Amino acid sequence: MKMKHKEKIMKAPVIEFKGKNYGFSTRSLILFPIGTLLLSVLMIQFLEIRANFWLHEIIAKHAVFVLNTLFNLRAEAVFVPEYYYPWTISLPGDLGTYIDNGCTGIIAVSIFVAIIIFTPHSQESKTNEDIIWRKTTGIIAAVTLIYLFNVFRIALQNYLYYQGFSWNGIHDSLAALSIIVVVHIFIFLICNRHIPEFFISIYYSGKLIYHMRAKLDPQKEYQKRY
């Protein structure tokens, strides 16, 4: 019985989920948090370069389109080259707001993309066969949903600002709401079984640590279970 138990704990753990088996390499589990952090930081810093502010232009013009279509405000997207963030949304009555990276959702997008890219692949071939496609569609879905949400958030903020509400109050409350919505977008993608490897790999890491501890002291584990 001892020999069988020792052989059992020498094998890497396997997790079954929805009829599929999942197993991950130690290298991929270590690379997951490190790669996610480094890639998200690099993406955020890269998109802060002024040459990439064309993204600000796109979201400003889309937000203006929503403002004028829904509220008929005669808003305009204005380029002011002397400003560090040159794209602003101009409202009647000399009101206006500028667009920065926080407005575009670039921070959330960078984190989401990095997480999805570095989510470990299962070593089980049947489970892993469509992972690239699932990751690609997950990235497209996340980027699209976050972008559309931020377009409507910016439009709503500017409309309320035009109506006389305090900008700080509007901005802070809707920013908090945006965090909640963005988190739920990610949970939605995961809970719809799109990339379950994210949660499974985290659980697997804990199980692997337990497995390694048992491997170092199999007699202790044997006495505990039997």
Summed up, the domain count is 1
Radius of gyration from the alpha-carbon trace, in angstroms: 24 Å
Into which percent range does the helicity of residues fall?
A: 55-70%
How many β strands by DSSP?
Answer: 5
Which percent band covers the strand fraction? 5-15%
Average pLDDT score: 83
Report the major sheet.
Answer: 3 strands, antiparallel
**Per the principal axes of the C-alpha atoms, what is the gross shape?**
elongated
Q: SSE order, as H and E? A: HEEHHEEEHHHHHHH
Could you say which structural class the secondary elements and strand pairing correspond to?
mainly alpha
Structural account:
- 69% of the residues lie in helices and 8% in strands.
- The chain is elongated, with a radius of gyration of 24 Å.
- Strand 4 (87-91) and strand 5 (95-98) form a beta hairpin.
- It has helices at 2-10, 26-47, 54-71, 101-104, 106-118, 125-128, 131-162, 167-191, 197-216, 218-225, and strands spanning 15-17, 20-22, 76-79, 87-91, 95-98.
- Residues 1-10 and 222-226 have low confidence and may be disordered.
- It has a three-stranded antiparallel sheet. Strands 1-2 form a two-stranded antiparallel sheet.
- It contains ten helices and five strands.
- It has one domain.
Write a brief caption for the model.
By secondary structure, the chain is mainly alpha-helical. It contains ten helices and five strands, in the order H-E-E-H-H-E-E-E-H-H-H-H-H-H-H.
Helices and strands in order:
Layout: H1 2-10, E1 15-17, E2 20-22, H2 26-47, H3 54-71, E3 76-79, E4 87-91, E5 95-98, H4 101-104, H5 106-118, H6 125-128, H7 131-162, H8 167-191, H9 197-216, H10 218-225
Antiparallel strand pairs: 1-2, 3-4, 4-5
